[in-house]
Amino acid sequence: MSDMTTVDILSPSGSKEGTVELPAEIFDVPTNVPLIHQVVVAQLAAARQGTHSTKTRGEVRGGGRKPFRQKGTGRARQGSTRAPQYNGGGIVHGPVPRDYSQRTPKKMKAAALRGALSDRARHGRIHVLTGVVEGEKPSTRSASGVLSGLTERRNLLVVLERDDNVSALSVRNLSDVHVLEAGQLNTYDVLCADDVVFTQAALERFLSTVNKPGQKAAAGVATDGADSAEPLADGSSPDAATFTVKGNKDSMKYHVPGSRWFDATVAEVWFTTAQAAETAGFAPAGGAAAQQVKEDDK
């Protein structure tokens, strides 16, 4: 894979205004189809309201009196006209309100988004514009002409900066264009679009906020001091005699040798002592008692 993918920056008039390099760690990574499928299924499930509901025979109004006497009618005995077999009766095993959302780790969602963007970039379906329209006046006709000049494919995803009101007003009525702010970019919308169009400002905003592989996940965690260090490529300690405490930047928890989850944890930062980890803002995994390991247990 190449280090960078270069894309032309076009003006609304179609002239080339420069180029931009798309980082390979975001726009040129392997596409993990099962991962993308799992993330999309979770996203669509979370969009379900889950407010469906039916009433059982105990919740339907009426039916308190026995419809006819128990014996002597020749008919099957009945206790209520709200039994399920009656018209207007309760529902058996009907749907009840529930939450359809699924837990999806942030790293999985970020990896799926990188895979979807990489697929579009490899096929030349990432475009960058200085702006959707020229000037300060919104124009849907001008925006439609600019976007149709980029590609013949129908469905477009336009990514804008949050305060770019002129572009947003220009494209909001285009039926085949879906508009997102840079911070709202997600895997499902990328997959639904044939081409992804960034404004230059939106691309810069996205690249500045996206969590790249190897990037510090927790702001303010120093890993270049004397008491902490980055792990090696395989996750091991750079100095097994000095750096012995594992830290997880997502959960902001640390694990001392011999503790319950120490062997199963992949270190994202190593510390010399538990006190050094706490100074950096990490908390003991499972509580302080879980990280107080006896010498015989190490």
TrEMBL record:
Q: What is the lineage of its organism?
A: Bacteria, Bacillati, Actinomycetota, Actinomycetes, Micrococcales
User: Of which family is this protein a member?
Assistant: Belongs to the universal ribosomal protein uL4 family.
Skewed-composition ranges (Basic residues) = 63-74
Report keywords, A-Z. Answer: Ribonucleoprotein, Ribosomal protein, RNA-binding, rRNA-binding
- Which terms in the Gene Ontology molecular function aspect does this entry carry? rRNA binding; structural constituent of ribosome
**UniProt record, GO biological process:** translation
> How is the subunit organization of this protein annotated in UniProt?
Part of the 50S ribosomal subunit.
Q: Which domain of life is it from?
A: Bacteria
- HAMAP family listed in its UniProt record: Ribosomal_uL4_B (MF_01328_B)
Biological role: One of the primary rRNA binding proteins, this protein initially binds near the 5'-end of the 23S rRNA. It is important during the early stages of 50S assembly. It makes multiple contacts with different domains of the 23S rRNA in the assembled 50S subunit and ribosome. Forms part of the polypeptide exit tunnel.
Q: Ribonucleoprotein: is it a keyword of this entry?
A: yes
As recorded in Swiss-Prot or TrEMBL, the protein's gene is named rplD
Q: What is this protein called?
A: Large ribosomal subunit protein uL4
Q: Which GO terms describe its cellular component?
A: ribonucleoprotein complex; ribosome
- Note the PANTHER family from the entry: 50S RIBOSOMAL PROTEIN L4, LARGE RIBOSOMAL SUBUNIT PROTEIN UL4M
Q: Where is this region: Disordered?
A: 47-102
Ribonucleoprotein as a keyword? Answer: yes
SUPFAM superfamilies, sorted: Ribosomal protein L4
